[in-house]
Amino acid sequence: MIAESAPRDIDAEAALRYARAFLAREMLAAESGPISIGEVTLHQHQRRAVVRVRSLLRVAGGALLADSTGLGKTFVALAVAHELERVLIVAPAALADVWHPAMTRAHVDARFISLERLSRGASSPVENPGLVIVDEAHHLRNPRTKCYAAVGRLCDRAQVLLLSATPLQNRRADLIALLALFLGDAATTATDQELARFIVRRRAAEASPRMPVIHGPIWVHLPVADELLDELVALPTPLAASDEGTAGALVTYSLLRQWASSRAALVAALRRRIAKAVALMSSLEAGRWPSRQQLAAWSHAEDAVQLALPELLAPLGTSPADHSLMLDAVRGHADGLRALLARLAGAADPDPLRAASLAEIGDAHPGARVLAFSQYAETVRVISRFLMQGRSGIAALTAAGGRVAGGHVSRRDVLAQFAPRTDHGEIAVAERITLLVTTDVLSEGLDLQRASVIVHLDLPWNPARLEQRVGRVRRLGSEQERVFVYAFAPPASSERLLRVVERLRAKLRITGRIVGLDSTVIPNASTGSSIAPPELASETHALLESWCDASITHAPAGACGAPAHYAAALAPNDGVVALLAVGCERILLAAIDGGAPSLDAATVARTLAMCVGQATTVDASDIERARHGIDAWCREWSARRRLAVASPAGARLRARITARIRSLLSSTPRHRLPMLAPLASRAQQALRTPLGAGAERDLLALSRVVDGDVRWLADIAALALGRASPGATADQPEALLVILLRRRKSGDAA
């Protein structure tokens, strides 16, 4: 609440200087990021990130660091962890070789466990971790997986730092799932602006030193026979496995994507489809309809299949007529696939042209290292094979391993030629790799900055993959001034059916609106606004840093008393900026030209930028209007926050458990109530406490326990241990400072 005291005569300029310095000190948490950790010197943008992440960990228990790829999130995370104990790092297994050397350089004592091991049920190497760092956190965007549940349990009573340059992969729900690891059920009801409060993101343009400039995308168009589209679309509809549902449209889309990648990828996909059809026919003839998992467990090669005793599967359960129709559908689909394979065997192969176009890109950048990415291992193998026939310096890398013209090569040896320079000397000319064709096995977490050309041999449906690919090259410390990006355009006819690029644009618009978008290979991918809220917050913090003044420690004589200090400035628009305290959290509220006060990042950034104008006197009537508007917003915000601990489904769950607790108390003998009542009170307090995703799962399981007793109440109460309770923060925000903006009039001094 804001004091009603009227302002006294004060030095307006001194009041405004104090207001700026006080606002900067409070918002920046009166701390600065470390200059170095261990042997690592942090850049300015990394130190800023450390400050903001620490603040979010204090007030919310978690943060998402979503800096653009290449800005050094690993060392920001280690700087945050430097003073903490029981630190656990969770990441894909392939990144173990990135984290262990980084921990050694930063002198940070932490333990590492892979997402893959957690998925298999492995236990954490750290009991009750104090900080959980999750790298490439977008792998946890599906809450229904075993891995998500395992990580959720680790995050229940720990501070959580999520790292991902691409947290929103396909839809808004991806981001909600990640933030729910520490926000819990409340993340599902949060607005975009509310979600953005927990995201720290800076674009490459904010980096110090500067990042390489992206040149492109440069589209590569190849002539491909359009008539193949009709044959792919005309394939007879397949019969799905018993648990797959309708499969026809998905099969067509999948085959078209592979066609757009390479002839080899399409042929391999057709052969796999034929093998699946043969397995289905064999099982149906035995009176059984297998599931997807059962089909995958059988070994087969095109027209030969080795069945795992289909008679042991569940009976088909259909009438003979239905059985016959199912067999006919499978045979028709298999015949269509074989006919298409035969058609392709006699048609011109476009893959040599693809390889030649890639070679031309390499020739256009003499001396540069080129990384060419594809979704499909078949594309990687065929393109690299054609290139190796007449060129040196070519390598291929898939999940199965690496290969050069002379034979197999280790993944480590391949990456060594693209990673930052070491003291091991230069590679011999005969062994130098200048063009690496690879799958997306290299698209995450690796520093391959010695390359300067990226080629997308095909376009994935997930636009985040494009940014991840470019991020392997565009990194801090890179020797390159520019990174060239090329993209092979999908065949025109497949593009008309799939609308691949338009799908990517739609997904990128969502990403740009909520999280932020640095650069993309997709042209005209407008986000609808220039900068996303997390990126605007970074710009706001940069402005606040310029206001820091250690010499200004006290308000000028005559300034308004506690709880709020007032100042005013001339500006292009009327407006108000208020610094609010909610417990230990500090938030900025702003309004422009009579609009409603808002936490909107764009409004806050615009209004704050106008506070640099000439100081002016504070008018009592203006203060009164501002006070009423801010007080009304604070009351509404507090009421909404009390109701937003859970989603509607979460609220119903808590209501059911609360009713069961009351029923348990009413049916308990009087002599047991003194023992049971305090436990019931703690359980009810836990129901009012925001819980992480792991604890929410446990709460749902506890709601299904039939007989509630003392142990049941204790288990519910234990869910809130180590988490901030609603009473830990103020019920209503308190205004600490208000800066009023008055529109400059013609008579005002410039």
Would you give an account of this structure?
It contains 26 helices and 22 strands. A hairpin with a 2-residue loop joins strand 1 (36-37) and strand 2. It folds into 5 domains: 12-22 and 548-643 and 732-743, no CATH class; 29-201, Tandem AAA-ATPase domain (Rossmann fold, 3-Layer(aba) Sandwich); 213-222 and 350-514, 3-Layer(aba) Sandwich (Rossmann fold); 227-345, no CATH class; 648-688 and 690-723, no CATH class. With 750 residues, the protein is an alpha/beta fold. Mean pLDDT is 80; it is low at 1-9, 558-562 and 725-730. An 8-stranded mixed β-sheet has the order 9-18-17-12-16-13-14-15, sandwiched between helices. The protein has a 6-stranded parallel β-sheet with strand order 5-4-6-7-3-8, with helices on both faces. It starts with 11 loop residues before the first helix and ends in a 7-residue tail after the last strand. Helix 2 crosses helix 3 (73-81) and helix 6 crosses helix 25. The longest helix is centred in the middle third of the chain and has 26 residues, at 320-345. Helices cover 43% and strands 15% of the residues. 45% of the residues are buried.
